[in-house]
Amino acid sequence: MQDRDKYFLICVIGCALILTALRAYATEANDPVVAHVGRDTVSQSALESQIADKLQEQRRALDQARLRLAAEYERGRSELLQSALEQMLDERALQLEIERTKMSRDELLAAVPVRKIEDAEIVEFYDQRQVEIGGAPLDQVRQPIVNYLQQRAENVAKRRYLDELRRKYDISAHLAPYRVKVADQGPSLGPPDAPVTVVEFADFQCPFCAQMAPTLRRLRELYPDQVRVVFRQLPLRDIHPLAVDAAQASLCADSQGKFWDFHDRVFADQASLSRSFLLQIAESLTLDMPAFEKCMTDRRYNSQIAADVQAAQNLFVESTPYTFVNGRLVRGAVDVEELRRIVDQEIHSHKVQLRAQHLLR
Length: 361
Prior knowledge:
With about 350 residues, the protein is α+β, with helices and mostly antiparallel strands. Helix content is about 65%, strand content about 10%. The protein has helices at about 5-30, 45-50, 50-100, 105-110, 120-130, 130-135, 140-170, 205-220, 245-255, 260-270, 275-285, 290-300, 300-315, 335-360, and strands spanning about 35, 40-45, 190, 195-200, 225-235, 320-325, 330. The protein has a 5-stranded mixed sheet. Strands 1-2 form a two-stranded antiparallel ribbon. β6 (about 320-325) and β7 form a beta hairpin. The longest helix is centred in the first third of the chain and has 50 residues, at about 50-100.
């Protein structure tokens, strides 16, 4: 073999060895060796295949956390923008009134009439918050209750005054509120075609849900033809061990057409909540007791309760009450005035849409 041929052969063999080494390096880089067992190797992919289910679970948790963060960001951003806009428009309205009346800001707000708190309102507030108050006699907590109610009345009066100023000076907000899609399935009150649907996720053992119950009842009284209220179950079993039984019982009562009666009785005397108390309520409502007890024993509505809980989780709802007004989130127990403002905005928006549709015909 000539020297030239030998040189060519050596080059070919060298190149082949280099390519083999590069392939091995690339393979190891993409799928590194994590262990040696004698002459055998264990690759990362082989290791991951042993725990594929657990790694998939971790991936799902990561994806869920990312979705939660994204939703919280969008919700928080929207709330900040809405709050800033509301404050800006209130200040603009006040400034225009200051220029017209030549009165100071403090003088204008001090002149806003505020209703006095009645004794019946104090007693009602005290009765509705027995769990929070912890059994303290009314005389001991009367003044803090009066102070709270008076401050609330002042806030409501101020809000109404500012809203009147906005109407007076033709000031309106057009920033679209943050909304989410919420299925309105479950026991409901109100017209199916109502322009406003209020969906509440609640827990029968939650004291704040007990506070929200009369608020939603009052809202229905104020808007009998315009508001539909839907109740969805979210028993927080880790902190409220009786909530699941109460949820089950309410749906068993619903099967006999008495959900809302049952709902009101539980929240009216939440401190007495027990399995025997649930049976007492069913008897007082003259339900078919054998059918009711069989429904409870069979856990007939486990799947419906689970579906509501899953829906809440998908919406990242972890506490109660959580209320959605046409998809607009309202956290916790709030006053009826706070809900009324949102409802009025939604009704106004609905009327504007109807007018626009009429003009397009």
